[in-house]
Amino acid sequence: MKGQSSAETRSAILDLIRSSGSVSRSELAVLSGLTEATISKIVKTLLDQELVIEAGFADSTGGKRPVLLTLNTKARYAIGVSLDARSINYVVSDMSGHAVHHLETEGFGHTTPPLVIKRMAGDIAKLVKRSKLAPGEVVGIGVAAAGRLDASGGVLRRSRVASDWEDFAIEAALHDATGMRVALDNDGNCAALGEFWSQRLPADHDFAVVYMATGIGCGLVIDGGLYRGASGNVGEIGHMTVDLNGPECFCGRRGCLETLAAPAAVVARARANEKLAAALGLEENTAEDDVRADFALIARAAAEGDAGSVALLTESAEYLATAVVSMANLLDLDTVYLGGPGFADAGELYAGTLRRALENGAFMRAVHPVEVRMSSVGAETSALGAASLMLHSHLTPFRAGRG
């Protein structure tokens, strides 16, 4: 940790305590490479700030039993919001990245952004009051949404079609409406941070989260922070080409993963199959919420053994596996998590297909396996990840830069 400022060093020690669960001062010295005197000074500051607490004793190794330190999970809280046309989900997360309160309201639909922001501010105020939190206990609001970010990171650029949300400054508008710090990110990035915080993963555990809702995205955690790229838009796995002769994508290319494997593509193929569409009760429509509902029908039918549904999802999973193997080879990953509503009912089918593809096609398979795991965060992946986004930037700012 040489060369870091005192604030960065303090933040790094807090992160070590977070990921360790419980750890002694002497263990922190070994893990960090700092002297025990320096560690004692930093720990005193963290104790004074009530960010960590002393929690029992470790086993003696011949002398005085070491005091164990752990994160004070009730010291600070963050609010996470998953912004979606179908529903808006809110969570209050403690410092461990676990939800302590939850609220779900109707989505933004066709309502104009200023009116939605006003409603969100009211919902957040109710949630804070219901949670009995003092203003100083809430570090801010994280917002997860689908789409691309502009270079500043505060404006969402919708990826499929232009809408009222195109170029709307969500961060600034919600900050003005609530008076709180606000950070916006795409749902894939938020899902990755949610996994990192809720599982107390160590900073040296690099991994990817493939996030599937209507489309497919990906978040990457490298060296304990989100890998963002030039504009915060790393992880567009949905626009990796998996078939040079495939259908045209809205991005201007052909054969992108989204056009062949995303729920919208699966549903379109199911609707085109008259017999399957009739059996499942699928209707001809294109609304995003209908796509999600129909994909859930297909996934549940596949889980019950419907051959047509199994074939559709297997094809989707094989295309996804092609992209994930390439990503694992490029980044030398050893773990890939699957998260998001798209995996809720058919996650194990996708996971099994990916595992087989990686066992046979990962370049480093003779050196180390690439594990595929279902996200542990559950249905609140995006909202809880958004709260983790704010915890990450507040408590470990040395890892949370946009670039």
| Unreliable sequence segments | none
The level of helicity is 40-55%
What is the CA-CA span between the terminal residues? Answer: 21 Å
CATH homologous superfamily placement of the largest domain: ATPase, nucleotide binding domain
Beta-strand percentage? 15-25%
Which overall shape is indicated by the principal axes computed on the Cα atoms? globular
Task: Provide the CATH topology of the largest domain.
Answer: Nucleotidyltransferase, domain 5
Number of helices: 13
**Looking across the biggest beta sheet, what order are the strands in?**
6-5-4-7-10
What summary fits the major beta sheet?
5 strands, mixed
Give the rounded overall mean pLDDT: 88
Q: What is the C-alpha radius of gyration, as a whole number of Å? A: 22 Å
**Series of H and E elements:** HEHHEEEEEHEEEHEHEEEHHHHHEHEH
Secondary-structure-based class equals alpha/beta
CATH architecture of the largest domain: 2-Layer Sandwich
- The CATH class assignment of the largest domain is Alpha Beta
Protein traits:
single chain; 403 residues; alpha/beta; Nucleotidyltransferase, domain 5; five-stranded mixed β-sheet; 13 helices; WH_DNA-bd_sf; ROK family transcriptional regulator
